[in-house]
Design brief:
The protein is an alpha/beta fold. The chain folds into two domains: about 5-255, Aldolase class I (TIM Barrel, Alpha-Beta Barrel), CATH 3.20.20; about 265-335, Type Iii Antifreeze Protein Isoform Hplc 12 (Alpha-Beta Complex). Helix content is about 35%, strand content about 15%. Strands 1, 2, 3, 4, 5, 6, 7, 8 and 9 form a nine-stranded parallel sheet that branches. A two-stranded antiparallel ribbon has the order 10-11. Helix 7 (about 145-160) links the parallel strand 5 and strand 6 (about 165-170). The chain is elongated and about 105 Å long.
């Protein structure tokens, strides 16, 4: 039986450096029914040089990208508070590390599932540290070629970690022609592992499609409002949209976990079959000795008599009893 699809709500930098917002996101995600709330643990001095270029110059309050990463940092105690809050709300806590120091801290506080960000799949030194934990690993494919992913997967397989691969396209927002749902089958066949979708479209539709396909995991960016500030808002779902996505995914979970046997189902629906199907009845009064034909027979509900499928087989039979109009025929009425 297929397991329930694991749904990750990725806050990333949507908190904009506000601890209060980060906690508010946890409360909002908990109300949606998602499985996990995910952050990103950035330590500017450990992962970037002061000259790191902007992907998009969106922030009027940060002169450099480096300063932006500094503003996204939380203290160790604040991260612990966020993890505790998430777990109190019944959510799994995850955060992607972007440096050795971030990894060591997250390992120390008990993170047990690791999402490898798209830009870190070539960071083998960090990847090897994560693999050494023996924990589950989620590989994002956003900027990788297939042969590069294969090398990462081969490395993970050597240590026998549980792992999955997420189809992801690093566009913000991602247009429908680049979502790449077809890649789910490519990954499943090539890597022989659970696969999922990390979606940046800003809509619920790719996630629902992936769930119908049978995805192991779905990740979406989230925002509290489309009017919020930050680089990922246009590629995010509101928490209300996330709740819709969760409801849809859980619906698909149920359908995929319960394959239907059409014959068995038809037996279970026999009372409805009797109600809606039709039987052979007398179109008018039929005298004893009269031959049965389309002139004196018709088909009407309910379907508890001679079934409509045998209608033509009765033509030419002789009535041995008088049959009143609108009476269902029985085998005793003709020969």
């Amino acid at each position: 039986m297929k397991k329930e699809c694991f749904i990750i709500a990725d806050v990333a930098q949507a908190h904009d450096g506000s601890l209060g917002f980060a906690h508010a996101f946890i409360d909002a995600v908990a109300d949606t029914g998602a499985n996990c709330v995910k952050f990103q643990t950035h330590i500017a001095a450990e992962e970037s040089t002061p000259g790191e270029p902007w992907r998009i110059k969106f922030s009027p309050q940060d002169d450099t990208r480096y300063e932006y990463w500094q503003r996204m940092e939380f203290t160790d105690e604040q991260w612990i508070g966020l993890k505790n809050h998430a777990e109190e709300k019944g959510l799994e806590f995850m955060s992607s590390p972007f440096s050795f120091k971030a990894f060591e801290f997250l390992k120390k506080i008990g993170v047990k599932k690791w999402k490898i960000a798209s830009g870190e799949t070539s960071n083998y030194p960090l990847l090897e540290k994560i693999i050494s934990t023996g924990d589950e690993i989620i590989v994002s494919s956003g900027m990788s070629k297939l042969h590069e992913l294969q090398e990462v997967i081969d490395l993970i397989k050597k240590s026998h970690n549980n792992f999955s691969v997420m189809q992801c396209t690093s566009m913000y927002p991602c247009p429908p022609e680049y979502v790449g749902l077809n890649v789910l089958d490519v990954f499943k066949d090539k890597f022989n592992c659970p696969v999922g979708l990390s979606d940046h479209s800003g809509t619920i539709f790719p996630g629902l499609a992936a769930a119908a396909w049978g995805a192991y995991m779905i990740e979406v960016h989230i925002t509290l409002s489309k009017r919020m500030y930050g680089p990922d808002v246009s590629s995010s779902l509101t928490t209300e949209e996330l709740k819709q996505l969760v409801e849809g995914v859980r619906f698909y979970d149920q359908t995929l976990a319960n394959p239907v046997d059409k014959d068995k189902l038809a037996d279970e629906l026999q009372s409805l079959r009797d109600t809606f199907q039709k039987s052979v009845v007398a179109k008018r009064d039929i005298d004893s000795g009269e031959l049965l034909s389309e002139e004196n027979l018709t088909l009407k509900k309910p379907g508890t008599g001679i079934p409509a499928a045998k209608f033509n087989e009765l033509f030419g039979k002789k009535a041995i009893n008088q049959i009143k109009k609108d009476t269902m025929l029985s085998v005793e009425d003709f020969k």
